[in-house]
Amino acid sequence: MGIFSKKNKENNKVSEEKKLVLSMPLFRGEEGYSLDAIVDDLKNYWKLDVKDVDGNDEVATFSIDGELVALAFMPAPVPSEELESLCQFSYMWDNAETEVMEHTHHAILSVMSGDASTVDKYSLLTKINASLLRTCDTAIGVYQGSATLLVPKAVYIDFADMLNEDMLPIQLWIYIGLIQENGKTSMYSYGLEEFGKLELEIINSDMDVNYLFDFLSNILYYIIDQDVTLLDGETIGMSEEQKLTIRESKANMKKQLAIKMEKLHSASFPLTKLVLINTKYRGLGYKLNKKFMPVATLVLFEIIAFSLWLTKDNLFYLMNFSYIGLSISIGQALFIVKYKHARRVVQLLVGIYMLVYLGIINQENMQIEGFWYYLFIGVFEAATIHYAVAKIFGPLLFGRGWCGYACWTAMILDFLPYKVPQNHERSKIGWIRYIMFLLSLSFVITLFLAHIANIERIMFISFIVGNIIYYIVGIALAFIFKDNRAFCKYLCPITVFLKPASYFSVVRIKCDTSKCISCGKCKRVCPMDVDVTDISRGRKNGTECILCMECVKSCPVDAL
Q1: CA distance 226 to 5
Q2: What would you report as the CA-atom Rg of the chain, rounded to the nearest whole angstrom?
Q3: d(CA 213, CA 148)
Q4: Which residues, in sequence order, are bridge partners of residue 112?
Q5: Residue partners of 128: CB distance under 8 A and separation at least 6
Q6: From CA 530, how far away is CA 69, in angstroms rounded?
């Protein structure tokens, strides 16, 4: 028998007569959503034809593609007893027990009537939820009661965008439960019944829990995407020697029928042989063995240090680059042993050294104005060497690593409370960085053309004043955009050098798509809004990656 069979209505034990699907967006604060804003987002972002809008911000109805949509704002929280038990099992919402239980209002969103399939109804429901979340500052997430799912705002919006890629965000529709007892793992689906299918169960497996999650996620995706039904007695396997019989029987987890896979063991079903589709991510990513990274980094910087020492006949370069290389290597070693603040250690070691020792004590302008100054007087030292290594040619090897580990501006900004952007949608003001770039160049050119005396002293003063301005503006932007890295994304002139070279960077975060379970955690924690699961160089915000490793630390299956 094959792995799947097309839907046979005679064998389909679950009715799909249900014509209404609904969810409950959650809010924290006095203000609710704006109906006009939601409708505008549906039209502009999702390109939907919204008709017959009737009502207001409290109660409204409208139609999309023949489906009647009803939206009602409820000025009270969902009863706590309904959510309390779910919070501890909501693996997509890290602080669910705190944030969900503090919500003050909710809404009821339903898609009803019409002739659309359940998949299309859920797709439409998801788009409306995403539009509501995107346009409402007080919205914190969605409660999908039919699947006992609690999904935070950023996660929901991220998964909803799969619909723009002609993919289904089943993570928003179906819950995968986990039970571990006596060294065995069982998993089950909750919500598949909504699509007219029997729930799936994996019973008492000795296989890796992350692999099982991947296994079940892929099956669920295929069942819904292709509208197939698993039939009693069929087998899953790659060969005659590797077969897993599926059985239809009473569920262990729910009082209903279910499709069971009861003998899924690593010995009989090798991990390397199982190949199930994961339509969101394809191809393999490759990683340098983490254990060798500190040594490799230190060796690289020592090569630079000795080369510059011998070339320039200046012991300073040996000490300077050896110190920076050692600092970065220490941070990488701390990361390997999973020290929470590994990168912050490097930021402080390198950032304070460059700001205080090189900048203030030695009075060298390490900002972009200093680079132009030394370049114009024809001196290849100080800021020019720094820029060549860290910001012009270096990014061809390590990308925007400077921004993540050495920038003294970001060192301060990363102490602010918005380490994870509350909204991963970029504002269209990135052009300001080019204005800043030209202003810095014009400033130095003007000094030379005007034959200003004591330019070197002016460079030092501009370094001090420039840093003060950077800190003030950077902190202000962080609070305005609720994003510590807003300055880096929109204003920093150095990115004009960094971004083009970073596109070709050798050291990159790559996704092993054979492991990826499409949980979206990596995207949610990325401070620079990089689509790290896309292995192409043209991935979204790909030249912005600062190698902070937050995505790597968050990945539950070590796919990065």
Answers
A1: 10
A2: 28
A3: 17
A4: 68
A5: 38, 42, 69, 71, 109, 111
A6: 34
- Pick the closest to residue 216 from 511, 519, 5 (CA basis): 519
Write out the E strands in 96-253. 105-112, 139-144, 149-152, 175-181, 184-190, 199-205, 228-229, 235-239, 242-245, 247-250
Phi, psi of 382 (to 5 degrees): 50, -120
CA angle 460, 315, 507 (to 5 degrees): 80
Low-confidence ranges of the chain (pLDDT < 50): 1-18, 237-240, 242, 267-289
What does DSSP assign to residue 389?
A: I
Tokens standing for 487?
Answer: 């300055």
Residue type, 300: L
Q: CB of 455 within 8 A of CB of 448?
A: yes
Longest dimension (CA), the chain: 92
Q: What share of the chain is helix, strand, coil (3-state, %, to 5)?
A: 45, 15, 40
Two tokens at 403?
């921004």
State the residue for tokens 């790659």.
238
Measured distance CA(197)–CA(390) in Å, rounded: 56
Local structure of 52: helix, strand or coil: strand
Instruction: List, for residues 41-87, the tens digit of each pLDDT value.
Output: 999 999 999 999 999 999 999 999 889 999 999 999 988 877 887 88
Q: How many angstroms separate the CA atoms of 106 and 74, rounded?
A: 5
Pairing assessment for the beta strands 199-205 and 257-261 based on DSSP bridges? parallel
CA 276 to chain centre: 24
Collect all residues with Cβ–Cβ distance below 8 Å to 505 and sequence separation of at least 6. Answer: 395, 396, 397, 398, 399, 400, 545
Pairing of strands 59-64, 67-74: antiparallel
Residue closest to 128 by CA, chosen among 208, 56, 46 = 46
Sheet holding 199-205, edge to edge: 175-181, 184-190, 199-205, 257-261, 247-250
Residue type present at position 486: A
Q: In whole angstroms, what is the distance from residue 175 CA to residue 524 CA?
A: 19
Residue length of the chain: 560
Q: Is 233 exposed, middle or buried (0-12, 13-18, 19+ CB in 10 A)?
A: exposed
At position 353, the amino acid (one-letter code) is Y
- Phi, psi of 97, deg, nearest 5: -60, -30
- Show me where the domains of the chain are located: 5-172, 180-261, 364-502
Stated as kind and residue range, the H or E segment containing 237 is strand 235-239
393: number of Cβ within 10 Å: 12
What pLDDT is attached to residue 317? 83
pTM of the model: 0.51
Reported as half-sphere exposure (CB side, CA atoms, 13 A), residue 25 has a value of 30
Residues 485 and 413: beta-carbon distance below 8 Å: yes
Would you call 54 helix, strand, or coil by DSSP? strand
Cα 80 to Cα 94, 104, 146, 423, distances in angstroms: 18, 11, 17, 27
The token pair at 388 is: 């060549």
pLDDT at residue 79 in the model: 85
